[in-house]
């Protein structure tokens, strides 16, 4: 199976597209800081992060913003490493959507 056929990566692409990116991009610096802290704690390496970004479907890689690529990669890595389950991710996405809709 190629990375583009991997359903986990497709789910990450869908997540990146489905969330209100403007709200998440405003938090982009915070997400990146947390990612770097996780990386420093040994959850994943810089190389794994790069691999996750580069494994996006070509159309997603070319169309996503910088932060959308990181978000899709983080989605993939936290599931791969068992940091969060899909249920926990779905709950947090729903919370962010609700917060965004209140503004």
Description:
The protein is 76% helix and 0% strand. By secondary structure, the chain is mainly α. The chain has a single domain (3-102), classed as Orthogonal Bundle (Cyclin A, domain 1). The radius of gyration is 13 Å and the shape is globular. It starts with 6 loop residues before the first helix and ends with a helix.
In sequence order, what are the helices and strands, one letter per element?
HHHHHHH
Uncertain residue segments? 1-8
Determine the N-to-C terminus distance. 42 Å
> In CATH, what is the class?
Mainly Alpha
Q: Tell me the CATH architecture.
A: Orthogonal Bundle
The assigned structural class equals mainly alpha
- The whole-angstrom Rg is 13 Å
Reported for the largest beta sheet, the result is: none
Q: Total number of β-strand segments?
A: 0
Estimate the strand proportion: under 5%
**If you average the pLDDT, what whole number results?**
74
CATH topology category name: Cyclin A, domain 1
- The 3D shape can be described as globular
Query: What count of domains describes the coordinates?
Result: 1
The amount of helix comes to over 70%
Number of helices: 7
Task: Summarize it.
By secondary structure, the protein is mostly helical. Helices cover 76% and strands 0% of the residues. The chain contains 7 helices and no strands.
Helices and strands, with pairings:
Elements: H1 7-18, H2 21-26, H3 28-40, H4 46-54, H5 58-63, H6 66-80, H7 86-102
Helix pairs in contact: 1-6, 3-6, 4-6
Label this structure with key terms.
mainly alpha; 103 residues; disordered N terminus; Cyclin A, domain 1
């Amino acid at each position: 199976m190629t990375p583009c056929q991997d359903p986990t990566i497709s789910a990450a692409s869908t997540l990146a597209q489905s969330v209100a990116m403007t709200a998440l991009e405003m938090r982009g610096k915070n997400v990146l800081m947390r990612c770097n802290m996780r990386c420093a704690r040994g959850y994943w390496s810089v190389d794994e992060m790069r691999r996750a970004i580069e494994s996006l479907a070509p159309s997603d890689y070319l169309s996503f913003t910088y932060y959308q690529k990181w978000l899709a990669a983080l989605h993939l890595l936290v599931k791969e490493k068992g940091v969060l389950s899909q249920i926990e991710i779905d709950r947090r996405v729903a919370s962010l959507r609700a917060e965004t809709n209140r503004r």
